[in-house]
Amino acid sequence: MMVSGAESNLLHARSGPLTADLVQSPAAFGLGQVPQRLSPDGEARMVCGFCATGCNLRVHLRDGQAVNVTPDPNYPVNLGMACPKGWEALTPLQATDRATTPLLRDATGQLRPVDWPQALDAFVENFQRIQQYHGPESVAFLSTGQIVSEEMAFLGALAKFGMGMIHGDGNTRQCMATAVTAYKESFGFDAPPYTYGDFEESDVIVLVGSNLCIAHPIMWQRVMRNPHSPKIIVLDPRRTETAMAATHHLALRPKTDLVLLYGLAHLLIKEGYLDEAFIAQNTEGYEAFREHVEDYAPKHVAALTGIPEANLREVAGLIGQGKRVSFWWTMGVNQSHEATRTAQAIINLALMTGNIGRPGTGANSITGQCNAMGSRLFSNTTTLLGGHQFTSETDRQKVARVLDIPVRHIPDQNSWAYDQIMEGIGEGKIKGLWIIATNTAHSWMHQQRAQALLNKLDFLVVQDMYTTTETVEMADLVLPAAGWGEKEGTFINSERRIGLVKRVAQAPGQALADFSIFRLLAQRWGVGEMFKKWTSPEAVFDLLKEVSRDQPCDITGIDGYDTLEREGGIQWPLPDALRNGHLEHPAKERRLFTDGKFYSENQKAKFIFDVPRGLPEPTDEQYPLLLLTGRGTSSQWHTQSRTSKSKVLRKLYPQKAYVEINPTDARRLGIRASQQVEVVSRRGRLHATAFLTPTVACGQVFVPMHYAKANQLTYPEVDPHSRQPAYKACAVRIEG
Ligand code: SF4
Fold it and tell me: Is the CB of 218 under 6 A from ligand 1?
């Protein structure tokens, strides 16, 4: 690989005291400057870097500096709207705790600044030494849904094809693995079928475990634009902001969703609300499913879920009589101990009523992170690039041919999932770990154990924008990375729309785009030749297009970044044939399965079901309350490593952790409003302010996930199919 002159300068400058060249900003090497093609007083339109809604923002430039943003009124996603995080998108770039130089832990245990050549040496020497003693699989990586697809692909290819790692997963395991598994098993490919226009076209909208108002506020605005006065049905144990605005709220007992969904299927069958032609032509497994849900009569379901029979019947009637019914789910489903089967129970309702492939319908998973969907296709973690299989010789041959690498470099086995990598550390099988743009020490379940495991590593590398995350503070080596707005590439949003991210600001100090870090590491590791075509994000986009050829996610019809800009983002798939054969411009809104054909071998969707299981950690005398976790406000994002940097956003939510308690429980426990309390689980305790509210039911409490110690409480359990953590429910008590 030929590195650029700028990267070469960084690579070949010698270690020792920081040289004058290296002390300078990478802008001196041309790595951080605002690109020439942007006018210094113009604007750049780009996709927001927080959530997977994928709003487009206009970044306004004055004298070459990005000064503020406004939402793009012409983009088909947000139509001129943005949530508080979007308006504050530039602020996290100016934080005082930005990582501006590589840091290496010295013999006294202190992280000390080093230059890039020293950092690259430390990375390569430590990881290669570990691999030499313990095998190539003893070093693993944990990636993210926050970097562009081209960087995800580079990371996955470099780690697995170049460095010989077998195991690598993403923090997308924590949010989207369930939807991936459910879709793959039911539809034959990880394929969310919808377009945001469906929010506006439904006459019945069913939201399961989704507080859309808070978690995806612009999607909620699309619901508000629906001209059909839709019935909005919310399934959620809490009376969330969304539930308050809904026409119907089923406040079921926590984690009884699977029972309730089977109960609705039972009623739809009994009342004859079926699309029998669709079931016969386009699905398989219906008869067995029908027999399975025989057991879920309303009386039984009401007893288990706490939802009165009359309400069950009313909601089943609304779904059955609806002409365009859309079903939506997110983390309330995905983060549970039987998450995959719950997601598939939602899919089953859409299939049996023929609510898929038409406007206003669908079994629709709403995604979390800005590029979780890119991770699902192109991160090279659990699936080989482009939704291929590591275990398929044909797939490995195809990817090797496109990338022009020997096929023997592609592992023929699947990676361990995130939890297995963490447990692998405990078992001494993983000795080196490379974490990129995620905060494992805060966000992983059962936080103390997660931190103890990270402490066991021989060498921990963290590549991040900031020096103050809990995970960076544990690192042996910190690689300073550019953030959103300081580099370019593409994101894929929830509705499969590929959109552009641009460089409008300089990364501070010696921070580099992740893309440049991967190029330097490839060269220093000795595999630069393997990545000779990976010269720029757009060059990698071309490779990814070719990798996607003939896959359900085929994007060979997208010419390049200019086309994405001109068309306002493009949803996958867009194969050459579709573009050249039929369309002058791709339609702004396209949904999948309009012909009733799915991606399985026989082109049919499958009914998949299972027997529900009880809570992994039910309440008892010692821990009598059930803790629910979730998003607190629209102004907080995950572990707050970015949103906490904005004064404006910080004013929009309580700075200290709080716990929502039902007033009846509070009275019984003698707890007053705003009292300082301890939320205690078998694993740890959280100091919090008591917030008394009837929006949580008696016997339940709620804590937002954004506060540092929330995951000291959570129970370490994963869904057996998707291996996604079950963050949503565990047993706690409140101490006054
Ligand atoms: Fe950004 Fe999501 Fe807010 Fe849109 S809804 S502005 S994508 S954080």
Answer: yes
Give the model confidence (pLDDT) of 232-258 as tens digits.
999 999 999 999 999 999 999 999 999
Say whether 660 sits in a helix, a strand or coil. strand
For the CA atoms of 410, 479, 522, 514, the dihedral, rounded to the nearest 10 degrees, stands at: 80
pLDDT tens for 281-305 read 999 999 999 999 999 999 999 999 9
Contact between 120 and 480 under an 8 Å Cβ cutoff? The reply is no
Give the dihedral of Cα atoms 105, 109, 113, 117; nearest 10 deg.
-30
- Count of other CB atoms within 10 angstroms of residue 566: 10
Distance (Å, whole) CA 63 – CA 506: 13
What is the C-alpha R_g of the chain?
Answer: 25
Q: Residue 12 corresponds to which tokens in the numbers above?
A: 């070949």
CA distances (Å), 195 to each of 322, 478, 678, in order?
19, 39, 43
Residue 542: count other Cβ atoms within 10 Å of its Cβ.
Answer: 17
Q: From the CB of 85, is ligand 1 less than 6 Å away?
A: yes
| 51 CA to centre of ligand 1 in angstroms | 5
Q: What is the 3-state secondary structure (H, E, C) of 305-326?
A: HCCCHHHHHHHHHHHHHCCCEE
Which residue's alpha carbon is nearest to atom 6 within ligand 1?
A: 86
Q: Is the pTM of this model over 0.70?
A: yes
Q: In what order do the strands lie in the sheet with 497-503?
A: 486-492, 497-503, 570-571
Angle between the N-to-C axes of helices 257-270 and 298-305, in degrees from 0 to 180, rounded to the nearest 10: 160
* pLDDT given at position 39: 66
What amino acid occupies position 698? Answer: C
- Which one of 46, 48, 196 would you pick to mutate in the ligand 1 pocket, going by the greatest count of ligand atoms within 8 A of its CB? 48
Q: Are 417 and 173 in contact (CB under 8 A)?
A: yes
The three-point CA angle 690-692-694 to 5° equals 145
Beta strand 103-105 with 477-480 is antiparallel
| DSSP states along 425-476 | HHTTS--EEEEES--HHHHSSSHHHHHHHHHH-SEEEEEESBS-STTGGG-S
Q: Which atom belonging to ligand 1 lies closest to the Cα atom of 82? A: 6
> Distance between the two ends of the chain, CA-based, in angstroms?
62
